[in-house]
Structure formats: structure tokens, C-alpha cells
Write a structure and sequence with these properties.
single chain; 21 helices; 81% helix; disordered C terminus; disordered N terminus; mainly alpha
């Protein structure tokens, strides 16, 4: 068949389809009128019939897209006999018809000009919206029409469709936490869509999406707590002298604990990375012990050894005047115990990654051992050490179990939050929890930002 014949054939079948649609509408109109199913002189019914006559004439005599025009005629005909009768009023009926015409137009254009994946996503979205708003939510026609318009506006891009569905699901199934879940969902989608890489990019993006989905569930309670609290409830908490003292005490003790660990554990891990000695492997394993031991058990162990009524605790207090029960010293001691593994492992890994030949070269240049450590090894390992110190500080600042057993007073921020929860309940303690979350986030991000200005490990960029 030549191209001209093919065009004539398409034109013939297109006009035949137009005639069938118009004839079908007219026949059903007469049949329904004779059966008394509807009023043939009702303005809306007459308007729909005239509309199909006008569209048929335009399609028959003009060079128009028969697929779109025929689809519109079909929608008008079915709406006249089904949709209009189901609609509660004329306004809703007209809105349903207009939105369906728009969706039909967009769907045809998507099918004609975009990859097949976009078409499948569009069709699936339509039926999914119908299932949500008409079936599940008991005939929410107005919402169905509104979200159909949103879907039509986003149809040209799979990314926009994804954001649209995040919005839809958050505001239908995640109430009353719609905005909190929407924030996390948009972050997840943005991270996945704009991720860049080389080898195995598709697999890596899949792993990224699944991992971020789990993080979504982990961070959702924190996001709900922060975004759900009003500023007016937070202001009295910030102005409370006792709470400000607890936050300041937490900052002070966590910083002291981190400095103590840095002063003693960092040199130890350097020695362990350079020396071989009996029990070295056992010592590396024991450094992880505070992570394995429950917080309450750690507190009991510290009280058993350092309490005022224990031999070691009495010995230290009588000779050095240092008490651990209900003192800042006790708080710092508990924080040092639980935070040790973080700086120890990070520092050891950082020193292990630095080749010994760098120090040997420094020695050939007549650098003394400590000078070689200070000017060569320590700067190269500083990034790993600071990362460990940041994690240690965060772990120390958030410690509750060991601190509340060994030194429940003076109160740190976690202990104060627990006491307020026990005394007044979750609702009244929520503003304090929000303040502590914000404080922790600010401090942690400030410490993390400082890492960017440090040199990388050996072989990396300065």
C-alpha cells in the first residue's frame, strides 16, 4: 500500500469511527428518552449532544487529531448516560467531564511523544488515584479531580510523577504527619534522582533508595517531634535556668571527656598501629567492649568500682579528694567509658592507613621521633581522628544509662529530659526533647563541618 493510500485509509476509518460515535450517542439519547431514563430536554443533556455534533463536524471537515477528538466524543457520550447521573450536582458533573477530557488529551500526547514508560506510569497513576479517592476514601470526587489535575501537570516527567505521588501518599495516608513525611520523602527522591556515578550506577541508586527508605522510618519520629512543636512551647524551655544549666553541663562534660580521650587514647592507638606486642589483638577487641555492654550495666559496673562505698572509690576520695557519685567527675568518667570505642577505632584506622615509609623519610631528614609524629603522621591522620572525636563527643553528650546510675545529679540534658518525662509526661516533656534535638543537631553539624577543612589521609587530596 502506497503512502497516499494509507493516508486515505486512515482518514476513512477515522471518519467512520466519528460517525459511529455520533450515531451511538444519538441512538442512546433517543432510547433513554423513550424509556424515561432521563429528560431529553434537560439543558445539560442537550448541551452534551450538541457538543458531540460540533466536534464531529470539526473532525470530519477539518484536519484534526481523530484520536483525541474521538476520545473526547466517547467521554462526552459516556458521561451523558453514566457520569452525569452519578454526579451529585451540575457543577461536579461538568468538572468531572472537563478534567477527564484534559486527562485524555495529556494521556494521548504522552503516548505519542514520550517513552512508553511515561505512558505506563500515567495510566497506572490514573487508576491508582481512582482507587484511593473513589474506592478507599468513600467517593471523594473533589479530591480525585484535584489530584487528577496535578497528575496531568506532572505527566511529562517521571521525576515530577514521583514527587506528585510522594505528595499524594503523604497527604492521604500519613496524616496528621503529612508535612513531616513529605519533607523526608522529597529529600529521598531528590537524593536518588540527582545521584551521579560511574560503574554500576543503576544498582547503586537502587541500594541508595532502599537504604534511604529505612532512614525515612528512622528519622520520621524526630522530624515529627521537631516540626510538630510550636515555638511558643519551646520558648519557656529555652528560658528555663535549670534546663540551660543542664545543656551547658552536657556540653562541658562531653567536651572534657573527648579531650581526655584524645589526650590518652590517640597516642595509644598510634603505638598500637606501629608496635607488635602480646595481647595486642585482645586489646583491640576490648576497646569495643563499651559498645556491647548495655548502658545500665556500664553504670552499675562503674558504681561497683568507683562508688563512695566501694574500696577503690573510697581510696581515690581519701587520697586525692575526688568523688564520683553525683559529681561532674562521675559524669565525665561515665562519658569517657561509653565514648572510648569511637575515637579509638577511628584513630587506629587512621594511623594504620599511613605508610611507615613517611616516618622513615622524615627520620632520614634528621627529624626527631616526636617531631616526625607531630609534623607528618598526626596531620595525615587528623581527619580520621577528628571524625572519631566528633562521634565520641556526640556519644558522650547523649549518654543517659551510665550517667543516671553513677551521677544522676547534677543533671545533664538527657537526665533532665528523662526526669521531666517521668514527672509530667510525654506531652509536657516534648518541648524539652525538641530543644535537645536541635542542640544536638547544631553541635554535630558544626563539628562535622570542621572536618571538611582537614587534610585527607595518605594518598588523598590535601
Amino acid at each position: 500500500m502506497t503512502e497516499a493510500n494509507e493516508i486515505r485509509a486512515k482518514s476513512f476509518w477515522g471518519k467512520a469511527a466519528i460517525a459511529v460515535l455520533l450515531g451511538g450517542h444519538l441512538c442512546l439519547y433517543v432510547v433513554y428518552a423513550l424509556l424515561g431514563e432521563f429528560d431529553p430536554f434537560e439543558f445539560f443533556n442537550v448541551l452534551l449532544l450538541i457538543s458531540n455534533f460540533v466536534i464531529a463536524a470539526i473532525l470530519y471537515y477539518g484536519d484534526r487529531d481523530v484520536l483525541i477528538g474521538g476520545g473526547i466524543m466517547f467521554l462526552i457520550a459516556t458521561h451523558a448516560f453514566i457520569g452525569h447521573r452519578l454526579a451529585p450536582d451540575y457543577l461536579t458533573s461538568g468538572a468531572i467531564l472537563m478534567v477527564n477530557i484534559l486527562v485524555l488529551y495529556v494521556g494521548v500526547k504522552v503516548n505519542q511523544h514520550l517513552p512508553r514508560t511515561h505512558w505506563y506510569a500515567f495510566v497506572a497513576s490514573y487508576f491508582a488515584l481512582y482507587g484511593i479517592f473513589i474506592v478507599s476514601l468513600n467517593n471523594s470526587e473533589a479530591l480525585f479531580l484535584l489530584f487528577l489535575l496535578g497528575m496531568a501537570a506532572c505527566a511529562r516527567s517521571l521525576r515530577l510523577i514521583s514527587y506528585f505521588w510522594a505528595f499524594t501518599l503523604c497527604f492521604t495516608f500519613f496524616q496528621p504527619y503529612a508535612w513531616e513525611s513529605l519533607l523526608l520523602s522529597f529529600f529521598l527522591l531528590t537524593a536518588v534522582f540527582f545521584a551521579r556515578g560511574g560503574v554500576n550506577k543503576g544498582l547503586a541508586k537502587f541500594f541508595l533508595a532502599t537504604g534511604l527508605t529505612v532512614l525515612f522510618l528512622v528519622f520520621l519520629p524526630i522530624t515529627i517531634a521537631v516540626m510538630g512543636e510550636e515555638i511558643l512551647n519551646i520558648q519557656p524551655v529555652i528560658e528555663d535556668v535549670r534546663i540551660r544549666a543542664a545543656i551547658g553541663r552536657t556540653f562541658l562534660t562531653a567536651t572534657l571527656a573527648t579531650l581526655i580521650l584524645a589526650a590518652f587514647v590517640v597516642p595509644l592507638t598510634y603505638a598500637m598501629s606501629r608496635l607488635k606486642f602480646p595481647g595486642r589483638t585482645l586489646l583491640l577487641s576490648l576497646m569495643d567492649l563499651p559498645v556491647v555492654i548495655p548502658q545500665s550495666v556500664a553504670g552499675i559496673a562503674l558504681v561497683t568500682a568507683l562508688g563512695r562505698n566501694q574500696f577503690l572509690g573510697q581510696l581515690i576520695e581519701s587520697n586525692l579528694g575526688i568523688a564520683f557519685d553525683n559529681t561532674l567527675v562521675g559524669i565525665v568518667t561515665a562519658q569517657v567509658f561509653v565514648a572510648l570505642p569511637f575515637i579509638a577505632k577511628a584513630s587506629y584506622s587512621a594511623f594504620e592507613a599511613i605508610p611507615v615509609k613517611y616516618e622513615q623519610v622524615a627520620a632520614t631528614l634528621r627529624a626527631k621521633p616526636f617531631e616526625s609524629f607531630r609534623r607528618v603522621t598526626l596531620p595525615l591522620a587528623s581527619r580520621g581522628i577528628i571524625i572519631g572525636a566528633v562521634l565520641s563527643w556526640a556519644r558522650a553528650a547523649g549518654e543517659f544509662g551510665a550517667v543516671v546510675i553513677l551521677a544522676p545529679s547534677p543533671e545533664t540534658a538527657p537526665v533532665e529530659a528523662y526526669r521531666r518525662f517521668v514527672s509530667v509526661g510525654a506531652t509536657e516533656a516534648a518541648p524539652l526533647a525538641v530543644v535537645l534535638v536541635l542542640f544536638s543537631l547544631v553541635m554535630f553539624f558544626l563539628l562535622q563541618a570542621s572536618i571538611r577543612f582537614l587534610p585527607r589521609s595518605a594518598g588523598g587530596e590535601a
